[in-house]
Amino acid sequence: MRKSTEKIEAFKHRRKKVISRLGNAALLVAAHPEQIRNDDVHHAYRPDSNMYYLTGFEEPECFLLIRPNANPETVMFVREKNIERETWDGFRFGPEGTKKEFAIDEVYKIEQFEEKCLELLKGYDELYYRLYKNEEADAKVQKVLLNLKRAYGRTGYGLMTIKDADTFLGEFRLKKDEYDLVNQRKACEISAAAHVAAMKFTKPGVNERQVQAVLSHEFYMRGSARPGYSFIVATGNNATTLHYNFNDQECKSGDLLLIDAGAEYNMYSGDITRTFPVNGKFSAAQAKVYEGVLNIQKELISYVKPGIFFKDLHKMAEDRLTDLMFELGLLSGKKEDVMKANEHRKYYPHGCGHWLGMDVHDAGLYYIRGEARPIEAGMCFTIEPGLYIPADDKTAPAELRGIGVRIEDNIVVTNSGCDNLTAGVPKEIVEIESLMASR
What we know:
Layout: H1 5-22, E1 26-30, H2 49-55, E2 63-66, E3 74-78, H3 83-89, H4 94-101, E4 106-109, H5 113-120, E5 126-128, H6 135-152, E6 161-163, H7 165-174, H8 178-201, H9 208-221, E7 226-227, E8 232-235, E9 256-261, E10 263-265, E11 268-269, E12 272-277, H10 284-303, H11 310-327, H12 335-340, E13 367-368, E14 371-372, E15 380-383, E16 386-389, E17 403-406, E18 409-413, E19 418-420, H13 429-437
Parallel strand pairs: 1-5, 3-4, 5-6
Antiparallel strand pairs: 1-2, 2-3, 7-10, 8-9, 9-12, 10-11, 13-14, 15-18, 16-17, 18-19
Helix pairs in contact: 5-6, 8-9, 8-13, 10-11
């Protein structure tokens, strides 16, 4: 269970960066609680992203406390070694193992959290901590804060000011360094290979869940620990439901299949969407919608470079997709009036993308103090315009009803433009049809 020296140094470097920005505030991060249902069935555990980002530690029931320029500067509270419980639930590092393997200054048992924090947090006026994310952890923290207030007596000190740790740490996670990008690229590479395999597998008569099985198989066989989010495998009209995840319908000839799926690798997630014909050939109506969305997506990607604003990408996507809706006969009237009335949102109800990283909708602010932030080198995000025309939309041209198209790639901003990390999945019509013809 030993962690590699390279990984530990990367986590130490991250902690040093965070410490340099904390000032006189302390930082407290809680792990996710273990997932156990009432009938004692355990679900797969996924560590809290902030905890992993700063430590690499993957066990539940733990806290990380950082106290800038203090001794000890980094403190963890973890479950103690327990051979009986490890027989049932798996290996535990325990306090001694955690201190040694994760280069933490001091490590205590989780049962000592309230007692030790009373001393460790004295003298701090501010604490970065994320409330309302973990009820059990919140209760422990609130008890510590109340005990601290009582310990100060009538000195004039009240409850410590709490600041949002997620917002604070999101600013570090938003711009990826080379260590981040190695993992991000690998997650995208695995995700891309799975999408290609799913395209090759798909044909009339297969079930959406069988396509999901192909994706899942490729993820795990290529080193992914888990999917980055729930699979969306939506055939025909199902694709007009944005977060469709029943994934249990037959894929029929003449329908499109929309797949939105991404693999997680070392806690970083890919997030790719492709839409393609079940029988391997786009109909004229499908091709018209698809080509329109694809051209818009390529235009958006080509616009990306340092200094632009994410909000401008959203506006561009809305503007171009609204033009496409007019061209397809989905809308009529004056464009300005249509957009002012949000009529275009009927067919395009989401944004053009989101930050991507350790969480598929990753941490980081889009606006700072109300002002849009400029995009910088090292930021990763998705670009995913789409058009969704429900089968029961009587106002739409008959040949377009039931068509849902979304095309999504994963972008990292470079010093002069951007790299498409998921370009390995075909998206040109001729490429898709050629690949599916080779099945």
